[in-house]
Amino acid sequence: MNIAIIGGGNLGKSIAQGLLANNFNASTITITRNRIERLADLKDQGIKVSNNNLEATANAAVVIIAVKPYKIAEILQEIDENISDDKIIVSVVSDFTIAEIENNLTNQPAVVRAMPNTASAVTESITCLASNGNTSDEDITVVANIFNSLGETIQINESLMDAATVLGACGIAYVLRFIRGMIQGGIEIGFDAQTATKIATQTVKGASELLLQKGNHPEAEIDKVTTPKGCTIAGLNEMEHQGFSSALIKGIKTSYDSISK
What we know:
- Helix 5 (98-103) links the parallel strand 5 (88-91) and strand 6.
- Helix 7 (161-188) packs across helix 8 (193-214).
- The protein folds into 2 domains: 3-156, NAD(P)-binding Rossmann-like Domain (Rossmann fold); 164-259, ProC C-terminal domain-like (ProC C-terminal domain-like fold), CATH 1.10.3730.
- The chain has helices at 10-21, 40-44, 53-58, 72-79, 98-103, 137-148, 161-188, 193-214, 218-223, 231-241, 244-259, and strands at residues 3-6, 29-32, 48-50, 62-65, 88-91, 110-115, 125-131, 151-155.
- It is α/β, with parallel strands linked by helices.
- The protein starts with a strand and ends with a helix.
- 31% of the residues are buried.
- It is an enzyme of class 1 (oxidoreductase).
- Catalyzes the reduction of 1-pyrroline-5-carboxylate (PCA) to L-proline.
- Its main location: cytoplasm.
């Protein structure tokens, strides 16, 4: 199955790298970008690179649109002549609905909105999927198989896609900012930057695996490390006094408000 990725920016490249990491045949993947020289690393791995969207989509069974929101309508109109009813259009563009995609196409292909994150590049993304009425179970399976190669997928109602963008895609930045804070704190209490980074990143990975594998609520795991009069509860209480949880919740809500206006 030929896959065309229209838009070789950070997310488009992450998707391509994730597919390669899961043994998708490089020769079946085409990725496009105006500045084609920035795709040299993918070209070296056998992926076809191009700055011609029409050529890239001509023989593609699945077309993944990974451009900026202000460009998607123009791109859809550009490739419209190649989009037949038997193709699958996958949009990873935020704030552009399935109905808007359909309005920019002559035919009626299966349309799936997908919201992965940049952890696709290391096959640890969570990708939320929403589809239109022309999408069969087989089409969903095809798309899920692509994005399962980048991590895990979950199907949601399209009305929750903005929320998925904030929690799953913007969420990468929130977590990285938290890790940066841990590293800075680690340096302040005596570690060098490299050691602090190793401890902080593995700690975050371990915390996530505890929840994923055990299925517990975070507070259940927190209780295991908060002993009476201990250093953990002292630190947690100070963070809460400074508005840690509140700031995070407000940040998520602010991001959501900015995308859903």
